Amino acid sequence: MIALTKGSAQFSEIRGAQLEIVGQSESEEVSCAIAKQVRHLTDHVRFNKSLLSQTLAVRLQDAKAANGRLLIKNKVVLNQAYGIRFLNRYMRVNEHYRAKKHDVTDWMIGDDGPFQLPQQGDVSKADLTTPFLIILKNGFNFYHFVDDVLRQFSTIDTLGPEYTGEIVISAPNEPISNFIERFIAALFPYHYARVRIVKADVSFDTVITSYDTNLYAMSGHARAAMPGINDALPGKGIVKGYNPIANLVRTHRANITSDAYASLRRTALERCADVDITTPRKLFIERGDSARNRKADGKNAFKDMLFRRGFTSFVLEDLSPLEQIKIVSGADTVVGFHGAGFTHLLFAKESATWIEIGTLQSLRERWPDFWHLADVSGVRYRKYCFDYAKDDPFEYPNFAKDSIVAPQITSRGLERLDTDLGRLTDETSEAPERLAYFPSTVTTLSNQNTSPSPDRRNTHLNDPCTCPFTFRPPHMKSATSEDTVRGFKGKLAVSRNAVLLPGNVDTGLKRQVYCPETHRILYHDMDIADLAPAEDFDVTNLDLAKKTGTYVFGGFVRVHFGHFLVECLGPLWTLDAVEEPIDGVLFMPYHANPNETLRNIRLLDDHSGRWLKALGVDEKIEIIRQPTQVEKLVLGENGLGLSERFRGSSWFQDFARSRNAHYRKAKPPKANTSIYVTRTKLSGRKGGILGETALENTFRNAGYQIFAPEKHSLEDQLATYASAKRIVAVEGSALHLPPFVIDNDCRIAVLSRRSGIDKIASEFGEQYSGFVGVDLDIIDTAKDHWVPAGQSRTNLESYAVVDFDETYDRLITLGYLPENVRRSIPSPLDVTNQIKEIAKARKQHPTVLNWDKDAPETVPQSD
């Protein structure tokens, strides 16, 4: 591959778009999910600066367009949309594997990964008549046409007016919409006559095509040569790794636009300058008949509001290409439902405000796909997230079944839109953030039945039993901004004569806490609540045990160590919040099993008691296994848990760190500060990395302490981690413990065995960042996985097959190992023997999970 475009690759800073997200759900749960997604986009996706890269015209030898991809010597080129789709498919089928060297072209392979620059050359006389190849995929979709095809005509322009080669658009098995030829003819009439659409595979001895340099920014070469790239990356971004996995690729494409888009914008605005059509200041983009059938609830009232505010409605597809561009480029405010119409962001007026009406689903699945277009025009791009126009408006849709679901615009949401439009059309954005967030105004669990029961007693308004979340000790600190984003509010409740119901799988009784004085459920589904019981709810026929005194409710306990740390400790921050003396902490079993064996009872009691004591809970604890009435019970919200609760509330973080501060103060002066946490001492059913003993040997050679935590008491584990300056560990439950005690200068490297970078960052990464401000170094070098027989995906019991040399290279680059470390690589015999041991432990032989190259390709569509 030879680059014909002059100049070296560079990534220049541009102004970019001002992005804004507005949460407008009627559900507190969905509102929290929106806030979590905003935090993910802010921390890991949106760059601190928008960058402009180059698209090069390149000459290829022995090339072929087949099945919507470009191949050189029958190897896929990982560039442009077709290459990214292939990589995405590869990563989906392979879980979180990295691309293998034999699956990509030789020229893309180097020591620094697959995204390299082609060799520089000159335009020869022969090049001026050489065909130019464009790959068309999703020929029915306007977004993909502009993003994949139309902007490449700007690259053809860089070859100069002397270029007269045929322009071949390869579109095998693709429907061809009429807008394709209309737009090419309107914007590039001097090229149109040479365009040939080929609906079959086509081969070339020599051909010219486009090559995007934006993904080169992922390489270490680029970041070393251009430090500005690192300055642009988000502060906590998982994009800092160089692995070419799908989420990193998408992130770079979202934030690094191309000069080809900028050139296409200039050409389009010049071509439509003389078009005679009225351009409204306020534009509403309607979806036409050819658009996908997404019927938004409340659309008529929404349109009435827009017309009242002076908006003019257009179905863009009913206009000519130049009329479409003329209208959108002249509007000050543009409103529309999520869809391909927002591709016109590329042609928007620089100071305009574009408002997209969508949902949490379109925010997650599609919104970043439009950023690089908005960055070119530099608009204010605001996204509203409503609930769904479906039977259950709060249920996240199944994308494979339902595709993108239209929004439900409620009267409350319409009122907010009306108010915002009155303000937005008369002001400019003053938000200092690159991505600003305006949360939902809903503050109650409106999707739950919270109406008062007829039996509810008329107690005084300020009684904490009547208003359970108004109780707040005077010394308790306020919520932080991180708490607010993740839905933590520091809720506390006090109940007299509360009834603890451990649950019963045989009778269907749910595990919960009930307040008889208010006839409300105060703890439900792992968190504090304020819910009306079911109509047939009745505790009068239960044989209640009685406990006198004041107790704190600790939540639900279970034996699994990782889940115990993450799911069973969250309410305990309440112990440091209450000021009155308490008589103990009451828990209930996580599993509501009335037939629990005596062994399991002893195991749960023993583990819970020892673990809680080691973690600084000195109060008397008791596990309640029968319905029990408590004289006075204090309940706090769950400050740690799965999903958006991984980071932990600021109140729980303070509790966990302060209760375990003595481990940091008692550091032995000669303690080993470099720790490798191994999984080799676990049973063969637990999963890990094949050949991990080789990792142990290498780290031992580098002076690390090899630490098997399950062989030590929890006190010893906490003391070991508290002394550490460097910890390297294979992903697993043990990693949830160090945040309780490590210092903020401790470095943590995580070796992925099943979850991949994105999942580790959103779970372990959130916990470390929240508790102690430490960013994880995540290393994913898995090539295959051995899984339990009959399983088709990685899971708790799977073993990763990693590239050991690549793992060591990454650890050396990151400073965890010295360059001259003596490396240990497992032999095939070592691995074979370990697989036999796994088979013996599981009484079945595991199976290798390889990439199925014949798997069907399913590519999500942006529209």
Overview of the structural elements:
- This protein is of the alpha/beta class.
- The chain is 30% helix and 21% strand.
- It is built from 27 helices and 37 strands.
- The strands form 7 sheets. Strands 3, 14, 15, 16, 17, 18, 19 and 20 form an 8-stranded mixed sheet that branches.
- The longest helix has 18 residues, at 28-45.
- The radius of gyration is 30 Å and the shape is globular.
- The model is unreliable at 95-113, 239-246, 443-470 and 850-863 (pLDDT under 50).
Which features characterize this protein?
alpha/beta; eight-stranded mixed beta sheet; globular
As a percent range, the share of strand residues is 15-25%
Overall strand count: 37
Shape: globular
Helical percentage: 25-40%
Largest sheet: 8 strands, mixed
**Structural class category:** alpha/beta
Low-confidence stretches: 95-113, 239-246, 443-470, 850-863
* Average of the residue pLDDT scores: 82
Distance between the termini: 33 Å
User: What radius of gyration results from the CA coordinates?
Assistant: 30 Å
How many helices? The count is 27
Task: Give a brief rundown of this model.
This protein is 30% helix and 21% strand.
